[in-house]
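HUMAN: Quick job: go over this next protein and say how the chain folds.
***
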Amino acid sequence: MNQPCSLFHLTLFGLASLFLPLQAEDPKQSDFYTITSIPAPEGVVIEGGSIELLPDGKVAVCTRRGQVWTIENADSYPESPPKWTLFAEYLHEPLGLAWKDGWLYAVQRPEVTRMKDEDGDGRADVFETVNDDWGINGNYHEYTFGTRFDKEGYLWTTLCLTGSFSANSLFRGWVLRIGENGEMIPTASGVRSPGGIGFNAEGDVFYTDNQGTWNGSSSLKWVKPGSFQGNPNGNIWYDYADGKAGDRPKDPIYEDGGTTTIEARKTIPELVPPAVVFPHGKVGNSPTVIETDHSKGKFGPFAGQVFVGEQTHSKIHRVYLEKVNGLYQGAIFPFLEGFQSGNIAVRISESGLLYTSGSNRGWGARGGKNFNFERVDWTGKVPFEIHEMRATPDGFELTFTKPIDPESAKDESFSMKAYTYLYQKSYGSPEVEKMTPSVSVTSVADDGKSLKLKVTPLTQGHVHELESKGLRSAAEGHGLLHPTAYYTLNEIPES
């Protein structure tokens, strides 16, 4: 028979509860990074396609509707009101901005244009065509994305296919370099549907390509000059490249259920595999801009790493890259979410501020709003994250932003899935060749900042999806802010 609790028992229980250890509550994103929405002028639609930082401290953003705006006080809002000035308009859907020697360069669908404000009223009054040696035909899908200038003085542009399935205009499906003097160099073929193009810390060029024909899932791709990126539709333009991009690669012949990229590389030597595959639906559906953190630690603990926008999921991801046997590969980690629209443009200042802008027009975005212009500030607190994920001959080495609790670094704290995607003419691919490798901890560094994992089997060409949910930080006992990583293993190191 149940007995009623006495006052003595209740009091004893209450006193005892005061001395029970408190469970460490895991922190949230806003403890480390805050997002501030910067309001646009009344009635103005800012569907940002690219962002550039100007020498006078202003921020420039070009919109998909053909305008270029400059913003004062973007770095200090809401303490100071933002001042928006219309710098230029009537451009053709610009998706690239770059400042050089007093000129603001814009990459439009049909050309690279440079603009200058000569009379000092804040509005461009000189416009010059730098290069227009590629084609457009009015198709909605013929976007053209552009970078800032590289070390040799070139802008890099990547051109979407026509309607995402064909190349009905000159150099559609290509990456081109444009010099300050107007020179155009066809550089690589095989592009399908890019969402952005940019540089890593070493200055090498990468672009994001979206899932579709010959792209089993979206990915980050290395633009090695003379390379073939996988989609053969634009290869019809090799005769117009004057040999600058090398010889035309053999077109793939794989139909539905054809093969995998690792197998296709054996017969198409020019094919460069995706550096990092973004598993469709898991990390996003539409990757966009590429931006490297050059702030030297002012934006947090990820200096030198690459950040990638995501339009559909209204997110920004973080990417760690390494080169193994001459090819880039690496891991993608979730980083920031909760933006108001689909992120298309991202720019990180040397002072450690991240600006982003985008749109949901035509595609939809989780953020729910038609457009956004937002700033991300680092609070100064360091999140507990996997900092780097490196391939080893028998698995991976993980480094961390904070020391780990060695007691939590046990086999049961980790799990892994591995899979790849079909390289085929059909649109996209399911995950194929699925497996569940075993994961074991082989060593933990004395300082707690790294550990090594043995993975069996370790499979070349596969995405290795790692979960580290049991790991805890040494000081606070917190779990990882983002415990999931996706590593694309193009090559296995020999030692």
Remarks:
- The domain at 387-488 is CATH 2.60.40.1220 (Immunoglobulin-like).
- Helices lie at 7-17, 261-264.
